[in-house]
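Task: complex structure prediction.
Instruction: return structure tokens for all chains below.
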Amino acid sequence: MSIILDKIFAHTSKFIAVSILLLVAWIFTVLLQHSMESITALGFDFVTETKWAPNLEKFGALPAIYGSVVSTFLAMILAVPLAIGVAIYLSELAPAKLKTPVGVSIELLAAIPSVVYGMWGLFYFVPIVRDLVGGIGISMLTAGIVLSIMILPFMAAVTRDAMDTTPDILKESAYALGGTRWDVIKDIIIPYAKAGIIGSLILALGRAIGETMAVTFVMGNVHQISMDLTLPATSIPVTLANEFTEASSGLYYSSLFQLSLLLLVISFTIISIAKFYFLRRKRVGL
Amino acid sequence: MATIINIKEESVLDVKDFQFTYAGNDAPSVNKTTMPIAKNSITALIGPSGCGKTTLLRCFNRMHDLYPDNRYDGEILFKGRNILQAKEDLINLRIQIGMIFQKPTAFPMSIFDNIAYGMRLQGMKNKTELQDRVEKALKDAAIWKEVKDRLKADANGLSGGQQQRLCIARAIAVEPEVLLFDEPTSALDPISTAGIEELVVELKDRVSIIIVTHNMQQAARVSDYTGFMYLGDLIELGKTEDMFVTPKEKLTEEYITGKFG
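Output:
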């Protein structure tokens, strides 16, 4: 009897596990299906065309791609040094009394819904950016800043976890040779945890590039490519969030689906690189 | 009081009324202990698990300072000064008193950089001098022949026994006066163990050695003096051959004849 139950359980869980794969494939198929019209009509021009003018039936994704890449890049530049600093502090320098409360609050910050960051950004950061650097405040720069604040806690928490995998005995060996705390951090912990740290940075990057709500409020949804960061811009998810409700024609609708397909592929690629290349468990022993 | 007999005059370290207590504990883990560590000799510390031998060993280079609120009482004299004083320069102390751990701890860098690490920490930049000293250290640790063609390779590619000799080479490269071995062969196979033991014996002309081991045969094979610890107390310290043949204390005798432990 119990053998039969075992088998039923095994098969049920197998079915559930496999259905996740099917779900991913299903999502992909649906997106592809709905994109077909735009793919056949626009071809490769979709990703090189800079004009997005639905009323003229012109759909160029380049401004949105540019906006996604630049806002994410800004966010990474701002967040990476801070996140690594926080991680080093939490993993190596903080006294035990601070380690847990600060660590937990960082994990809590990572759990704040992104729409809250977006609203906070709109009411708090937009005026600050407007006063400090000019423009209307709704801009690529603001989006980058809000995005960096949003990914910072996640990045710091996973980077700290990567650093915490360094065996005590390895750190002690460096101290035993006369190393200072700083020597041990830069020569032992960071090199040892390097793959894990890079992996967590890339995971955060994957989150940033697909982030919708936090940036929709502060980016402006203006399809233009400009080097001036104080101008409004758009990104792939911002375009999707703003325009789906007004997509009137079939091609407009389909090109939005193609944008989301593009985003899916980009996110998948980034996360795969992080997971399979950097976050493999490779060190054994110690 | 422990029975301490026949230790040679010249000592490198002198433990005096020393006591060590871990953070958060009321009871000390090493109880009031007084013992000399003979110069240019090998002193083995033996005893059952939890007897305080590793804890005592880690006091000699103040390793316990890496974790907060541990407490030292009494004195450990090294070159006439008490190394337990707050003003002791720990970096300098750890250069003079090196340590080898239970498991090989090759750093995530090349073989050459592993050996050069301690010297670089001290600010040595001269390339030829570094190369000479790395080569000498590797030769002294009897691993030169095996690694001389792959000094640039990742040290983690070496076998466990090779890595442990690499760690010894790394420790002697900074020319310490004392080396602390904390069960250095517990993660190694018998052949590698024999190699490390041989190496330890060769090193004693240049450094004074304290070795913690759970393996009594190892203590008998390599050491000049043996200290037996039990429940945080030093029970007996004497010449190794006397300890194993005619122990003075009943507890020592029971331990080395396998009645407990």
